[in-house]
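Weekly puzzle thread! Below is a chain. First person to post its structure in C-alpha coordinate form gets bragging rights.
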Amino acid sequence: MTSSPVLFDHLPPGVAERLGWYVYLYVDPRDNRPFYVGKGKGDRVFAHFDDQKDSDKVRIISEIETAGMKPRLDILAHGLKEEEAAFRIEAAAIDLLGIGALSNAVRGWKSLQLGRMTLDHLIGYYAAEPVSIVDPVLLIRVNKLYRHNMTPLELQEATRGIWRVGPRRTGAEYALATFEGVVREVYEIQEWHPARTLPYSTRDLSQRDTTSRWEFDGRVAADDVRGKYRGRSVQQYLKRGNQSPTIYVNC
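Winning reply:
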Protein backbone atom coordinates (compact mmCIF):
# COMPACT_ATOMS: atom_id res chain seq x y z
CA MET A 1 0.00 0.00 0.00
CA THR A 2 1.53 3.32 -1.05
CA SER A 3 1.66 6.37 1.19
CA SER A 4 -0.53 9.41 0.70
CA PRO A 5 -0.45 12.67 2.67
CA VAL A 6 -2.94 13.42 5.41
CA LEU A 7 -5.52 15.61 3.67
CA PHE A 8 -7.69 16.43 6.66
CA ASP A 9 -7.26 17.56 10.26
CA HIS A 10 -10.84 16.58 11.09
CA LEU A 11 -13.50 14.29 9.68
CA PRO A 12 -15.87 15.73 7.07
CA PRO A 13 -19.52 16.13 8.11
CA GLY A 14 -21.33 12.83 8.49
CA VAL A 15 -18.20 10.66 8.41
CA ALA A 16 -17.79 10.32 12.18
CA GLU A 17 -21.29 8.92 12.51
CA ARG A 18 -20.59 6.36 9.79
CA LEU A 19 -17.29 5.31 11.34
CA GLY A 20 -18.62 4.81 14.86
CA TRP A 21 -15.94 3.36 17.13
CA TYR A 22 -12.84 2.50 15.12
CA VAL A 23 -9.25 1.26 15.39
CA TYR A 24 -6.54 3.12 13.50
CA LEU A 25 -2.87 2.82 12.57
CA TYR A 26 -0.21 5.48 12.13
CA VAL A 27 2.02 4.22 9.31
CA ASP A 28 5.55 5.46 8.58
CA PRO A 29 5.64 6.29 4.82
CA ARG A 30 9.40 5.71 4.77
CA ASP A 31 9.01 1.96 5.19
CA ASN A 32 5.21 1.45 5.21
CA ARG A 33 5.32 -0.01 8.72
CA PRO A 34 2.73 0.82 11.40
CA PHE A 35 4.31 2.56 14.39
CA TYR A 36 1.23 3.29 16.49
CA VAL A 37 -2.12 1.60 17.10
CA GLY A 38 -5.05 3.48 18.62
CA LYS A 39 -8.81 3.41 19.00
CA GLY A 40 -11.47 6.07 19.29
CA LYS A 41 -14.37 7.83 17.66
CA GLY A 42 -14.90 11.22 16.07
CA ASP A 43 -11.65 13.05 15.35
CA ARG A 44 -9.53 10.96 17.71
CA VAL A 45 -7.38 9.68 14.85
CA PHE A 46 -5.92 13.18 14.35
CA ALA A 47 -5.20 13.91 18.02
CA HIS A 48 -1.57 12.76 17.99
CA PHE A 49 -0.45 15.53 15.65
CA ASP A 50 -1.00 17.99 18.51
CA ASP A 51 0.66 15.81 21.14
CA GLN A 52 3.58 17.62 22.79
CA LYS A 53 4.65 14.87 25.18
CA ASP A 54 8.14 13.43 25.09
CA SER A 55 7.42 10.01 23.58
CA ASP A 56 8.55 7.68 20.81
CA LYS A 57 5.30 8.36 18.95
CA VAL A 58 5.86 12.14 18.91
CA ARG A 59 9.50 11.67 17.93
CA ILE A 60 8.61 9.47 14.93
CA ILE A 61 5.90 11.88 13.75
CA SER A 62 8.44 14.73 13.99
CA GLU A 63 11.03 12.76 12.02
CA ILE A 64 8.51 12.02 9.26
CA GLU A 65 7.43 15.66 9.05
CA THR A 66 11.08 16.84 9.00
CA ALA A 67 11.56 14.57 5.97
CA GLY A 68 8.74 16.47 4.24
CA MET A 69 6.12 13.74 4.63
CA LYS A 70 3.15 12.90 6.81
CA PRO A 71 2.22 9.66 8.53
CA ARG A 72 -0.37 7.62 6.67
CA LEU A 73 -3.53 7.07 8.67
CA ASP A 74 -5.14 3.67 8.13
CA ILE A 75 -8.45 2.62 9.63
CA LEU A 76 -8.04 -1.01 10.64
CA ALA A 77 -11.67 -1.56 11.68
CA HIS A 78 -14.70 0.70 11.92
CA GLY A 79 -18.45 0.65 12.36
CA LEU A 80 -17.97 -0.89 15.81
CA LYS A 81 -21.02 -0.50 17.99
CA GLU A 82 -19.30 -0.60 21.36
CA GLU A 83 -16.04 0.74 22.80
CA GLU A 84 -15.14 -2.71 24.16
CA ALA A 85 -14.97 -4.09 20.61
CA ALA A 86 -12.52 -1.30 19.70
CA PHE A 87 -10.47 -2.04 22.83
CA ARG A 88 -10.24 -5.73 21.92
CA ILE A 89 -9.25 -5.13 18.29
CA GLU A 90 -6.67 -2.53 19.33
CA ALA A 91 -5.16 -4.97 21.84
CA ALA A 92 -5.08 -7.79 19.27
CA ALA A 93 -3.33 -5.53 16.73
CA ILE A 94 -0.70 -4.51 19.30
CA ASP A 95 -0.15 -8.17 20.21
CA LEU A 96 0.20 -9.15 16.55
CA LEU A 97 2.58 -6.34 15.57
CA GLY A 98 4.48 -6.57 18.87
CA ILE A 99 4.78 -3.82 21.45
CA GLY A 100 8.53 -3.68 20.74
CA ALA A 101 7.88 -2.67 17.12
CA LEU A 102 5.45 0.12 18.05
CA SER A 103 5.60 3.46 19.82
CA ASN A 104 2.64 2.57 22.04
CA ALA A 105 3.66 3.03 25.66
CA VAL A 106 1.61 0.10 26.95
CA ARG A 107 0.02 -3.08 25.72
CA GLY A 108 -3.65 -3.17 24.83
CA TRP A 109 -6.67 -3.47 27.12
CA LYS A 110 -6.64 -6.72 29.12
CA SER A 111 -3.98 -8.02 26.74
CA LEU A 112 -2.35 -10.19 29.38
CA GLN A 113 -5.64 -11.83 30.33
CA LEU A 114 -7.40 -12.00 26.97
CA GLY A 115 -4.71 -11.32 24.38
CA ARG A 116 -2.24 -13.37 22.41
CA MET A 117 -0.70 -16.35 24.21
CA THR A 118 0.20 -19.92 23.40
CA LEU A 119 -2.53 -22.54 23.63
CA ASP A 120 -0.65 -24.15 26.54
CA HIS A 121 -0.77 -20.87 28.47
CA LEU A 122 -4.44 -20.42 27.66
CA ILE A 123 -5.38 -23.93 28.81
CA GLY A 124 -3.34 -23.41 31.96
CA TYR A 125 -5.06 -20.11 32.59
CA TYR A 126 -8.59 -21.52 32.42
CA ALA A 127 -8.01 -25.09 33.62
CA ALA A 128 -5.76 -24.48 36.62
CA GLU A 129 -6.93 -26.62 39.53
CA PRO A 130 -6.97 -25.20 43.08
CA VAL A 131 -4.19 -26.32 45.40
CA SER A 132 -3.99 -26.39 49.19
CA ILE A 133 -0.73 -24.82 50.31
CA VAL A 134 0.99 -26.94 52.97
CA ASP A 135 4.38 -25.21 53.07
CA PRO A 136 5.29 -21.82 54.57
CA VAL A 137 5.17 -19.62 51.48
CA LEU A 138 4.99 -16.04 50.35
CA LEU A 139 2.62 -15.53 47.43
CA ILE A 140 3.98 -12.78 45.20
CA ARG A 141 1.70 -11.27 42.61
CA VAL A 142 3.79 -10.21 39.62
CA ASN A 143 0.83 -8.91 37.61
CA LYS A 144 2.44 -5.57 36.69
CA LEU A 145 5.64 -7.07 35.29
CA TYR A 146 4.35 -10.39 33.95
CA ARG A 147 4.41 -11.25 30.24
CA HIS A 148 3.52 -14.61 28.74
CA ASN A 149 6.77 -14.74 26.77
CA MET A 150 9.12 -13.56 29.52
CA THR A 151 12.30 -15.53 30.08
CA PRO A 152 12.92 -17.58 33.24
CA LEU A 153 15.44 -14.97 34.40
CA GLU A 154 12.97 -12.12 33.83
CA LEU A 155 10.33 -13.95 35.87
CA GLN A 156 12.79 -14.72 38.67
CA GLU A 157 13.97 -11.10 38.87
CA ALA A 158 10.39 -9.83 38.79
CA THR A 159 9.61 -12.14 41.73
CA ARG A 160 12.59 -11.72 44.05
CA GLY A 161 12.29 -7.98 44.53
CA ILE A 162 11.55 -5.36 45.53
CA TRP A 163 8.90 -5.74 48.25
CA ARG A 164 7.68 -3.91 51.32
CA VAL A 165 7.69 -6.84 53.76
CA GLY A 166 8.32 -7.06 57.51
CA PRO A 167 10.09 -9.55 59.79
CA ARG A 168 7.47 -12.17 58.98
CA ARG A 169 9.26 -12.66 55.66
CA THR A 170 11.89 -14.83 57.32
CA GLY A 171 9.28 -17.51 58.04
CA ALA A 172 8.61 -18.15 54.35
CA GLU A 173 10.58 -21.00 52.81
CA TYR A 174 9.24 -20.56 49.29
CA ALA A 175 8.09 -17.73 47.07
CA LEU A 176 5.29 -18.49 44.61
CA ALA A 177 5.21 -16.18 41.61
CA THR A 178 1.56 -15.75 40.70
CA PHE A 179 -0.23 -14.07 37.82
CA GLU A 180 -4.01 -13.79 37.81
CA GLY A 181 -4.20 -16.31 40.67
CA VAL A 182 -2.16 -19.04 38.96
CA VAL A 183 1.32 -20.06 40.16
CA ARG A 184 3.83 -19.47 37.38
CA GLU A 185 6.99 -20.53 39.21
CA VAL A 186 8.20 -21.63 42.65
CA TYR A 187 11.43 -20.40 44.25
CA GLU A 188 13.26 -21.54 47.36
CA ILE A 189 14.11 -18.49 49.46
CA GLN A 190 17.68 -18.63 50.73
CA GLU A 191 18.21 -15.19 52.26
CA TRP A 192 16.63 -11.74 52.41
CA HIS A 193 18.56 -8.54 51.67
CA PRO A 194 17.76 -4.81 51.64
CA ALA A 195 16.50 -3.84 48.17
CA ARG A 196 19.19 -3.32 45.49
CA THR A 197 21.79 -5.32 47.39
CA LEU A 198 21.83 -7.87 44.58
CA PRO A 199 22.38 -7.12 40.87
CA TYR A 200 19.57 -7.33 38.31
CA SER A 201 20.16 -8.17 34.66
CA THR A 202 16.64 -7.56 33.31
CA ARG A 203 15.36 -4.69 35.47
CA ASP A 204 16.47 -1.09 35.96
CA LEU A 205 15.73 -0.07 39.55
CA SER A 206 17.89 3.05 39.55
CA GLN A 207 14.90 5.38 39.69
CA ARG A 208 12.90 3.38 42.21
CA ASP A 209 12.48 4.41 45.83
CA THR A 210 13.75 1.31 47.64
CA THR A 211 13.43 2.62 51.17
CA SER A 212 12.25 -0.11 53.57
CA ARG A 213 12.00 -2.62 50.73
CA TRP A 214 13.53 -6.08 50.51
CA GLU A 215 14.59 -8.69 47.97
CA PHE A 216 15.44 -12.34 48.35
CA ASP A 217 18.25 -14.47 47.03
CA GLY A 218 16.97 -17.84 45.88
CA ARG A 219 16.67 -20.50 43.21
CA VAL A 220 13.98 -22.51 41.47
CA ALA A 221 12.58 -24.97 44.00
CA ALA A 222 13.19 -28.71 43.91
CA ASP A 223 10.97 -30.65 41.54
CA ASP A 224 8.84 -32.21 44.27
CA VAL A 225 7.92 -28.79 45.69
CA ARG A 226 7.64 -27.14 42.28
CA GLY A 227 5.37 -29.91 41.06
CA LYS A 228 2.90 -29.33 43.89
CA TYR A 229 2.21 -25.71 43.03
CA ARG A 230 3.32 -24.67 39.55
CA GLY A 231 0.37 -24.24 37.20
CA ARG A 232 -2.15 -24.54 40.04
CA SER A 233 -4.67 -21.95 41.21
CA VAL A 234 -4.19 -20.14 44.52
CA GLN A 235 -7.09 -17.80 43.93
CA GLN A 236 -8.73 -18.91 47.20
CA TYR A 237 -5.87 -17.27 49.13
CA LEU A 238 -6.29 -13.93 47.35
CA LYS A 239 -9.06 -12.18 49.23
CA ARG A 240 -11.28 -9.84 47.26
CA GLY A 241 -10.26 -6.24 47.82
CA ASN A 242 -6.75 -7.09 49.04
CA GLN A 243 -4.43 -5.26 46.67
CA SER A 244 -1.18 -6.21 48.41
CA PRO A 245 1.27 -7.92 46.03
CA THR A 246 2.52 -10.18 48.85
CA ILE A 247 0.45 -12.66 50.90
CA TYR A 248 1.80 -14.94 53.63
CA VAL A 249 0.52 -18.50 53.95
CA ASN A 250 1.50 -20.78 56.84
CA CYS A 251 4.10 -18.38 58.19
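Puzzle host: Confirmed. Bonus trivia for everyone else. The two ends are 61 Å apart (CA to CA).
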